[in-house]
Design a protein that fits this description.
Number of helices: 21
CATH class of one domain: Mainly Beta
Pfam families: Lyase_8, Lyase_catalyt, Lyase_N
Oligomer: single chain
Function: Broad-specificity glycosaminoglycan lyase.
Number of strands: 51
Distance between the termini: 68 Å
Largest sheet: 9 strands, antiparallel
Family: Belongs to the polysaccharide lyase 8 family.
GO molecular function: carbohydrate binding; chondroitin-sulfate-ABC endolyase activity; metal ion binding
Organism: Photobacterium gaetbulicola Gung47
C-alpha cells in the first residue's frame, strides 16, 4: 500500500507536540460549590433513550468508585471533556478500578422499538493517556459471563472507544449489568489515566467503528492511493501546474478577507469563548465534537444536568470555521503583531484538536458525515502550511485528516471510479479538501503522480452514469443523491465540481471533454428546473430552504472558463451565468474572450423522468409538474425535517415567476402543507399529516408510470397515477387513488383528473389550484372580473367561474366540485419544530367532498392572463366548437387532450389503450405520447417513464408500440424506432430507455 501520511513518524510527532502533558502534581480535589456527582441511573427509568451517564463533578470521588491497593483515584480539574472535572487514576498493573453501580442493557429489539431504527446499546467512555504504553485496559461488565472488551493504550491524548454490547464485546450482556471493572493488563509498571463521561446509551447500529485502540465488528479501511512503487520523473511543466493550482486555491480561500478591527474583534471574541490555554504543556479548553458524535447522547432525552454539560460542547464545524478565519487574516494582515497573534491562536487550536483525540487511528466512536463539519479545517491547513510545518504539526494533522477521510474511501478518496464514487457529498464537501491533501504531499514525485490520478479519476467519475440509485448524473440531466434528483445536495456539488474543473483547466491534469460535457448537461438542466429556486416538489426535506441557482452562479462561470475542447470559454455556460447572476456582460468580456450577452429565460417543455417531473416554461414563469413512482420517492420526510411534506409530489403543479420564491409568497409561514398547488390531497389535521415514523420516510409504490414527454421542445404532457402503499394505514390511506394529467401548450395548461377515490369519510379531498402568501408582489386577486381586496375573504365558486391569482395566472374550472377561495390569516406548523407559524395566505381549491368515488376535474390555466383574455376564454368554453381544447378521453385507462390552436394532441396512457383518434389507434403500454400533423408530416414524441432499472442496474429498454391509422414511413432514419406496416395500419415501435422522449417525423405513404 502506498500511503502518503507518513504514519511511521506520527506517534513520535504527536508525542513531541504534547510532550508537556505530564502529571505535575497540584490540586486534585476541586474546590468551590460544585454539584454532587451524577448517579448512573436514569432520571426517567421508563425512557430507554435517556443515556446513563457518570460524570465526576462532585467535591470527592463517588463512593461507588473503588481501586485496588497500590492505586489511587481522585477528581481533578486538570483535564476534562464533560463539565469541569474528570477522574484521575494512578494505576498499578493488574489492579482494577471498579464502578460499583448498575447499567441497564436493552436488546437490539428493545432498542429498535425505542429509537425506531436498527440500534444497539452502546458503551462509551473518554480516556486520556499522557504516556503511550504497550499494555491495554480490560473492561468487564457484571459477572465474568457478561460483556467485556479490551482497549490498547498506545496513544497520547483523549480517546473515546464505543462498542455495541451485543455485537462488539465478548460474553453475553444481562438486562442489568452490575458494575464495571477496568483492569490494566500486560504492563510491568504503573501509570496514570484520566477518565470522564462513562456512558451507556442507545445509538444507531451503524456507528461504532474500530480504530487503533478498540476492535468492533465495523471496520472502515484507510485511504489507499495505490501509487506504484516507482514513479516517473516530474517535468517542470507538471510542477509549475501544481504550483498554479495551489496558488489559485489559496487565493480562493483567502477571498476578500480584510484584517479590519471589526473582523479581529469578532475573532478574538469567539476565541475567548473556547477558553483555550496551555500551561506546563497541559492544554485545556472547551470540548470539541462533530455534530454526528452527539447522536450517541440522544440529547432530547438527557437529564437536565447532562443536557447542560453536553450543551457546552462546541461543534468542530464552528471551531474549524474560526480556524479558517484566523488563517485568512494571517494571510492578509501587514501588522506583524497581529500576524503573530493569529499564528499563535491557530497553532493552539490545532494542538487542542490533536489533544481532543482528532488524531490518526482515533475513531472517537464514529466520525461520520465528516465533510460537512470539517472542510474549513482542510482549507485552514492549506493557508497555514508553513506555520504548521514550523511547529511540527503539519505531519500529524495531515495524517489525521487523511485518516478521517476514510469514510469517503470508496466515495472519492481512493480515486477509483466505482458505483459509490460519484457521491454528491464528496463533491460538495471534500473534493477541494482532497486536492489540498494531495497538494500538501511533500514528495514532489508523489504530488505530481497524485494530481494526475486525481484528474483522471474526476474525469471518469463525472463521465459515468452510475447504476441504479447511486449518486451521480443521469442522462436526462438530473443528478442523484439519496436515491433521487436532489437539488439541495446536487447544486452545491455542481458548484464545487465546476470549481475543480476550473482549477485543473489547461494543466496536465485537466478534465476530459466528456466529463465537462456531462457536468455542463446537468448544470444547464438545473437552470431549466429552477427559477432560480427549484419547485417545492423537488426539494426533498428542505422545502422553502432557499435552494437557488443564485448561490451557485460562480459554478457556471467556472465551468464556462474551464473551456471547450478548443480551449475557448463555453458560450452556453457563460450566457447562463450572466442571466443567473445579473452581472454586467462588459465586466466579463475579457475573461470570456468575447462580449457574451445573458441568455433569455429557457422556454418550452422539458422532460425529467428520473425525477418523475415535467417542466414547462413560458416567458419568465416555470411550471413544475411533479410525481412519484417505484423509482422516484414522493418526498423525503424526517422526524425533524419536512414533517408535513407528504403531498409535495402528488401530481403537484407549481407556477413560479423568476425571482426569490419568498417574494412571491412561497414560504412556510402560514403555509398549509395539505395544499400543494396542483396536488390532489386528503386535507388532514397536523397529527395525521405528520411524519408517520420516527426516522426517514421516502414513499414509493409499485407504479412504473408517472412522468412526462415533450414535443419539439415546445409542447409537453405529464401523467400521474396516485397509489399509496399500505404500510402506515393510520396515517397514509392505502385506498387513496387518482389519475392526473397536465398538457402544456405555450401559454396554456390543460389539467384533467379522474378516478379520484378514498375511504377517509372524515376529511375532505381537494385538488388545489394555487396557494401563496400575500407579499408586495402578490396582492392582486380577480374573480370573474372583480378585483378582491377584502381581507379576510372567502367565497365558493362553481364550474364556469374563473380567477386570476397574484402572479397573473388565470384559472378556468370547467368540471369538478365547488371551488373554495380564501384570503385569510392562516395558522400552520413549522416543518422541523412543529411549532405554530402564521401568515396571510391566498388559496383556491376544488372540493371533491369526503370519501369521493370516481371524482374528476378539468380546468385550464392561462399563464399570461388578463381579465379580457379570461372573459374571452370563458365565453369560448360555452360551445364545444369554440372551446380551445377537446378532452377526447378521461378515464382510468387514458387521458387524451387535443389543443385546437397548436394542433397537438397529448396522451397519458396508463396501460394498453385503444383509441379512435384521428391518427393513433393503439398505444401498447403505459407511456406519455404527443402527436402533431402538419403538411403531411406526423410528428410523434413518445416517452416511457418506466426506467426499468433495479438497485444495481442501469436503465434498460422498455419499448412502446404506437399503432397509426394509415401507412406511414420515417421522414428520417432513426435507429431508436422500427416501422412495420399491417394492412392499412402502421406500427411504430419506440425503443425507449432512461425515460427519455423519442421524437420522430413520419410521412404519409
Amino acid at each position: 500500500m502506498n500511503r502518503l501520511s507518513h504514519i511511521s513518524v506520527l506517534a513520535a510527532a504527536v508525542s513531541l507536540v504534547l510532550s508537556g502533558n505530564v502529571y505535575a502534581g497540584g490540586q486534585i480535589e476541586a474546590a468551590g460549590n460544585i454539584t454532587p456527582a451524577s448517579v448512573v441511573e436514569q432520571t426517567d427509568p421508563q425512557d430507554p433513550m435517556q443515556a446513563q451517564i457518570i460524570s465526576f463533578e462532585g467535591k470527592a470521588v463517588p463512593d461507588y468508585v473503588k481501586v485496588a491497593d497500590g492505586s489511587t483515584v481522585a477528581v481533578t480539574d486538570r483535564r476534562a471533556v464533560n463539565g469541569e472535572q474528570s477522574l484521575v487514576w494512578q494505576w498499578q498493573p493488574d489492579a482494577p478500578l471498579t464502578l460499583d453501580t448498575e447499567f441497564r442493557y436493552y436488546t437490539p429489539k428493545e432498542a429498535y422499538q425505542a429509537y425506531g431504527r436498527q440500534s444497539s446499546t452502546v458503551f462509551s467512555v473518554w480516556i486520556y493517556n499522557e504516556k503511550p504504553s504497550e499494555g491495554e485496559l480490560e473492561f468487564q461488565f457484571g459477572s465474568a459471563a457478561n460483556s467485556r472488551f479490551t482497549m490498547k493504550l498506545d496513544f497520547t491524548g483523549w480517546r473515546s472507544p464505543g462498542l455495541a454490547f451485543h455485537r462488539d464485546m465478548q460474553g453475553m450482556p444481562a438486562s442489568t449489568l452490575k458494575g464495571l471493572t477496568i483492569t490494566p493488563k500486560g504492563m510491568t509498571e504503573g501509570g496514570e489515566l484520566y477518565i470522564d463521561r462513562v456512558m451507556v446509551s442507545i445509538d444507531d447500529i451503524r456507528y461504532q467503528w474500530s480504530d487503533d485502540v478498540v476492535t468492533t465488528r465495523i471496520t472502515v479501511p484507510e485511504v489507499d492511493y495505490g501509487l506504484p512503487e516507482i514513479l516517473p520523473d516530474v517535468t517542470a511543466e507538471e510542477l509549475a501546474a501544481v504550483g498554479t493550482i495551489k496558488q489559485e486555491l489559496l487565493d480562493y480561500y483567502v477571498g476578500d478577507m480584510k484584517a479590519s478591527k471589526k473582523a479581529l474583534d469578532a475573532i478574538r471574541k469567539e476565541y475567548r469563548t473556547y477558553g483555550l490555554s496551555k500551561e506546563n504543556g497541559i492544554i485545556n479548553g472547551v470540548h470539541i465534537v462533530t455534530k454526528k458524535q452527539l447522536t450517541i447522547y440522544q440529547k432530547a432525552h438527557l437529564s437536565p444536568d447532562d443536557k447542560a454539560r453536553v450543551k457546552a460542547y462546541v461543534d468542530l464545524r464552528k471551531f474549524s470555521e474560526l480556524m479558517e478565519k484566523i488563517a485568512r487574516v494571517w494571510h492578509v494582515t501587514d501588522d506583524p503583531v497581529v500576524r503573530a497573534e493569529m499564528r499563535d491562536k491557530y497553532i493552539l487550536m490545532s494542538e487542542h484538536l490533536l489533544d481532543q483525540g482528532f488524531q490518526h487511528g482515533s475513531s472517537l466512536v464514529a466520525t461520520h458525515h465528516w465533510g460537512y463539519g470539517t472542510r474549513s479545517w482542510y482549507s485552514s491547513v492549506l493557508l497555514m502550511e508553513q506555520s504548521l510545518k514550523d511547529a511540527g504539526l503539519l505531519e500529524p494533522i495531515h495524517s489525521a485528516l487523511l485518516w478521517y477521510s476514510r469514510e469517503f474511501k470508496e466515495r472519492g478518496f481512493d480515486m477509483e471510479v466505482g458505483p459509490k464514487s460519484s457521491d454528491m457529498d464528496y463533491y460538495n464537501t471534500l473534493a477541494r479538501a482532497h486536492m489540498i491533501m494531495l497538494l500538501l504531499e511533500p514528495d514532489e514525485q508523489q504530488r505530481v503522480a497524485l494530481m494526475h490520478k486525481f484528474g483522471k479519476f474526476i474525469s471518469g467519475n463525472m463521465a459515468q452514469t452510475p447504476a441504479g440509485y447511486a449518486d451521480g448524473f443521469r442522462p436526462d440531466g438530473t443528478a442523484f443523491r439519496h436515491k433521487g434528483n436532489y437539488p439541495g445536495y446536487s447544486f452545491a456539488a455542481f458548484n464545487s465540481a465546476a470549481h475543480v474543473a476550473y482549477l485543473l483547466r489547461g494543466t496536465p491534469y485537466e478534465l476530459s471533454e466528456p466529463a465537462r460535457q456531462y457536468l455542463k448537461k446537468v448544470m444547464l438542466a438545473a437552470r431549466v428546473y429552477s427559477n432560480p429556486n427549484p419547485g417545492v416538489g423537488t426539494n426533498g426535506r428542505r422545502p422553502f430552504f432557499g435552494i437557488s441557482l443564485n448561490k451557485i452562479a460562480d459554478g457556471y462561470r467556472w465551468l464556462a472558463l474551464a473551456g471547450t475542447e478548443q480551449g475557448t470559454a463555453d458560450t452556453d455556460l457563460a450566457q447562463a451565468y450572466l442571466r443567473i447572476s445579473g452581472d454586467d456582460p462588459q465586466r466579463f468580456a475579457g475573461e470570456f474572450g468575447q462580449l457574451v450577452m445573458p441568455e433569455a429565460h429557457p422556454q418550452g417543455a422539458y422532460s425529467f423522468n428520473y425525477a418523475a417531473m415535467g417542466i414547462h416554461r413560458y416567458d419568465d414563469k416555470m411550471v413544475t409538474m411533479k410525481g412519484w413512482n417505484r423509482y422516484v420517492w414522493s418526498s423525503e420526510i424526517y422526524n425533524n425535517a419536512n414533517r408535513y411534506g407528504r403531498y409535495q409530489s402528488h401530481g403537484s403543479v407549481q407556477i413560479q415567476k423568476w425571482g426569490d420564491e419568498k417574494e412571491y409568497g412561497f414560504s412556510q409561514e402560514g403555509w398549509d402543507w395539505n395544499r400543494m398547488p396542483g396536488a390532489t390531497t386528503i386535507h388532514l389535521p397536523w397529527e395525521l399529516l405528520d411524519a408517520p415514523r420516527k426516522h426517514t420516510t421516502m414513499l414509493t409504490n409499485n407504479v412504473r408510470f408517472n412522468g412526462s414527454t415533450e414535443l419539439e421542445g415546445r409542447y409537453g404532457a405529464f401523467g400521474f397515477t396516485l397509489e399509496n402503499p399500505d404500510r402506515w394505514p393510520a396515517f397514509i390511506d392505502p385506498s387513496f387513488r387518482a389519475k392526473k394529467s397536465v398538457f402544456s401548450f405555450d401559454n396554456r395548461l390543460v389539467l384533467v383528473g379522474s378516478n379520484i377515490a378514498n375511504s377517509r369519510s372524515e376529511y375532505s379531498t381537494e385538488t388545489t389550484l394555487f396557494q401563496y402568501g400575500l407579499t408586495d408582489k402578490t396582492q392582486s386577486l380577480i374573480i370573474n372580473g372583480e378585483a378582491v381586496t377584502a381581507f379576510p375573504f372567502s367565497t365558493e365558486l362553481e364550474p364556469g367561474d374563473w380567477l386570476i391569482d397574484g402572479m397573473g395566472n388565470g384559472y378556468y374550472v370547467a368540471k369538478g366540485g365547488s371551488i373554495e377561495v380564501r384570503r385569510q390569516h392562516q395558522e400552520s406548523r413549522d416543518n422541523i419544530t412543529k411549532e405554530p407559524t402564521f401568515g396571510n395566505m391566498v388559496s383556491a381549491w376544488i372540493n371533491h367532498g369526503n370519501a369521493p368515488s370516481g371524482a374528476e376535474y378539468e380546468y385550464m390555466i392561462m399563464l399570461d392572463a388578463t381579465p379580457e383574455k379570461m372573459q374571452a376564454l370563458a365565453a369560448s368554453m360555452v360551445s364545444a366548437e369554440e372551446k380551445p381544447y377537446q378532452v377526447l378521453r378521461k378515464d382510468g385507462t387514458a387521458h387524451i387532450v387535443h389543443d385546437r390552436q397548436s394542433g397537438v394532441t397529448g396522451y397519458t396512457a396508463y396501460q394498453f389503450v385503444r383509441t379512435s383518434d384521428k391518427w393513433i389507434r393503439a398505444i401498447s403500454t403505459s407511456s406519455v405520447v404527443m402527436a402533431k400533423e402538419q403538411d403531411g408530416i406526423l410528428s410523434l414524441s413518445v416517452a416511457n417513464p418506466d426506467l426499468n432499472m433495479e438497485k444495481n442496474t442501469l436503465s434498460r429498454e422498455v419499448p412502446v408500440a404506437i399503432t397509426l391509422k394509415g401507412r406511414w414511413r420515417p421522414a428520417e432514419a432513426d435507429e431508436r424506432i422500427a416501422v412495420k406496416h399491417k394492412g392499412s395500419k402502421t406500427v411504430v415501435t419506440f425503443r425507449c430507455k432512461d425515460g427519455l422522449p423519442i421524437q420522430t417525423r413520419l410521412q404519409k405513404i
